[in-house]
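tool_call: predict_structure(chain=1)
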Amino acid sequence: MEQETMVKEILTALDFFSAQIRTQIAEMNDKFEAKIKEMNERFEMKMQEMNDRLEARIDQLEDEMNERFNRLETKIDSLRIELTETQETVDFHSAKIAQHERKLRKLYRQL
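tool_result:
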């Protein structure tokens, strides 16, 4: 009977300690989950900040590229105008040269 009492006491003690261990494990699990959740939230916040910075940088680069394309387009338009004016000048001078050549041939025939 005394052995039976000792076994019961040991089982009671084991139940008591296992309950404490289960409680501690549950508390540790809750703390772990809370820490993981906190880390996840910080990670998501950092990712959002990086995404926002990246989008801002992309927008800035797009604006710079648009500005440069506009300047390039303006330069090309200026060159096109200059080329047109040069062609008109060449056409005018070509016509005058042909006119002067005709006059010179006419004068040469008269000699």
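agent: The mean pLDDT is 95. Proceeding to next step.
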